[in-house]
Amino acid sequence: MTAELVRGQNHPLPDSRLEVRVSAGHAVVACATCTDERDVTRREWLAHPGSPRLPGLEVPTGATDAPRYTVDLAAVDAAVHRIHLVIALPEGPGGPAHFGATAAPFLAVAGQDGTEVASFTITELGAETAVEALELYRRQGAWKVRAVGQGYAGGLGRLFADQGLDGAQERAAEVQAAIARPTPRAEPAPLRTLSASEGTYAPGAGTGSTSTGGSGAGARPGGQTPTPGGPDATVPDGFQSAGAAQPGSTTPQPSADGTQQEASTGSGGRIDYSHPRRRSVPPPPPPTAPAPQPGEPTRPVAGDATGWSMEERLYNQIWGMFEDLARTVAAYRSAVEFAESRLDQELDQALSDPRSRIGGAADAARAEARAKCEQLTAQARQALDRDLAQLAAESDVVEPALPPAFARWDNPVWHAFRVPMETPMAMRLGDLQLPESPELRIPFLIRLPLERGLWVDSGRAGSEAAIMLDDAQLRKLAMDCAVAHAARLVAVHPPGDFAVHVIDPAGTAAPSLAPLVESGVLAAPPAAGAQGVSQTLAKLTQRVDLVTMAVRGGAPDALPPDLDTAEQLLIVNDFPHGFDDRAVTQLRYLADEGPQVGVHLMMVADREDASAYGPVLDPLWRSLLRVTPVPDDHLADPWVRHSWTYQPPAVPPGSAILRHVLDQVSEARRSWDG
Prior knowledge:
By secondary structure, this protein is an alpha+beta fold. It has three domains: 3-188, sav2460 like domains (Lipoxygenase-1, Sandwich); 276-410 and 434-446, no CATH class; 452-665, 3-Layer(aba) Sandwich (Rossmann fold), CATH 3.40.50. Helices cover 29% and strands 22% of the residues. It contains eleven helices and 28 strands. The protein has a seven-stranded mixed β-sheet, with no helix packed on it. Strand 16 (190-195) and strand 17 (200-207) form a beta hairpin. Mean pLDDT is 80; it is low at 181-235, 237-270 and 275-281.
């Protein structure tokens, strides 16, 4: 499946031999520059139509509407850290004056078998005549592609100067002079490998596809598509690109500084519940670590990723750590599986002859086969330990630098907490880990506003940790976990932008709800009994109806002046106790339609308690992101299908940090309302 990238998003490259196809609809010039780890471009690191070849890289020899880059990453100079793929308009009459007057250029990255692995459409171009389209870069021994889309109204000269190329204007003139005439669209040439030692090319095995259009939905990490294994095997949907467009979002209004502004009601209340908008131009490069001394490993840096703010950089860096851990463990498991398979084959081959099954020769063959297996396994473990050590060092630097929305409850940043004036781009929902490295935990972040409701599972559901607890303990832990999630949601939103409602029909959650009740952050006291359930659901479903009609009808000013346009969270405990058929229908409606208009659901329930409803409630459970109050390995990533162990957020025993944070929220609300 092709990953449809947006500006700033990256994607791993599974093959070393690649072909990057460009579809522009008009003649463009394809160039490429290379930079080292310090982002320095050497004079000889420029490929253009007049000098189309570099080790591991070739560009077309003329201007065409469908240029293709041929890349062999294994043959690229070892000093090259990044490869910048550039397209530009030819100078002279007869062609478009700038990219804003043409169709949006489309780029597709294909493997050696012609299968597209990533695509990128460069939108929102105007007076630019040269564009840095894609960047191929190394990260911890692997190559990735990043969508850039940075345009330059000053043309190739300004682009080359920005990349630090000596004699930028002269080199740009050299590129334009090398274009004799536009060339027609050509059929894709076979992928070729460039020998770095000999400086020549050898034919490759695959040929590119003639397709230049994108196919399928983007395989973004953290998508909400359930993976094999049932509804509980959920993809960690918090991990998605910082700049990805979200379904159902309304068209943003551009501001003077290039950011996107949200729509508002006439009375000033916010009714756009889409994800926070990102700038329409690529962010600046991340900060680089000081060069290490000879023999010393590279020291990690917090925020070592692209982004317009430190928050966005840290978000993308955490995403990269998650991806790196998934890939390195997948490589280790594959190596171990290969070693064991090879052992079985060698034992079968050695013992296939009955005459050789007994005696010293058979024992020697078995010992040799096992020794080879152990050697391969040890080599794989050594590589894994090296990668894990790098990730652990990065985690040690990143964790202390996280803002409150991303930080654990034991992070000192919470002691200096103040209610923010802007909603963060994401929030920490817990931690993720793999059995190969249980001490390495990756923050599990979900984007805000929430696109799905949450289900804190108070049942056992096969979890070993849950089986060790009795029902009362498990339900208490589930409600404590829900309160911790709700407290963080309230804390990371500006004053008055987030309200919390609670349905507790039998009042069994009173001890867990005490921090929310005593701090005064609840919109109303917890609803109890069948009447309380009915009134709360009726109020929220009416709000969803009104806002939905206003948004779809384009009439936000028609909303009642007393309607609270802040986002709403409904916590439901002990479902289905106190719920009749009408209430169940309203709950399903809130789960399906609420997130689009700022009404979110958090269920604290055991699915078995609602088994009497049968399959009627299956869509409800599937629509919610299941988390657990105890460690459980029910989450899966979309690439290699690892079973990730989810660790719920834990407030340190005896700590008053939760109450301190909620008191800050309550005080900020009083000041805001006053």
